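---------- Forwarded message ----------

FYI, see the YsnF/AvaK domain-containing protein record below. Original note from H. follows.
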Amino acid sequence: MGKFIFIGAIIGSILGWLMDFSILAGLVLGAIAGGVSYALFSRRNIEKSTDESEVQSLQLKEEQLDIKKERIQTGEVKVHREVVEEEKTFKVPIRREEMVIEAGDEEEIRIPLKEEEIKFSKHPVKLNEVSISKREIEEVEQVRASVKKETAHVEVEGDADVVKEDDEKLQ
């Protein structure tokens, strides 16, 4: 279309110059004439091509799968500390003093006696450390689904000759 308008504008400006019109008026009138001639010419070609051709087409379609992945929660893991109480027995040697009295002629004597007493205290000690982390594992999973596909099926009635594009006869 652009070619027709451009050629029309050139011819119109030349005619305007030769006939003492304004060149701008000739340019505009020529462009309009070029657009109209393109419309008429293209309509005539469309009518010719539809009359001359008897080719019809059949569009064949097929289904395609769109595969999407979605993350869903499959479970939950809770990790916490649990205090377990157990009874432990320790053997601790202790010392004590014992009074030994031997017969003699003295008066009463007092001697203080001492012994060790067991006292204990508790304090936490690091036993071990538990590491907690997540990791992704990639697996391949096969998905099966049926898809539909259209194919062309030719039914011939009577004595009609049908030829494929590669010139083989169909029945």
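H. also flagged this: The chain is about 25% helix and 0% strand.
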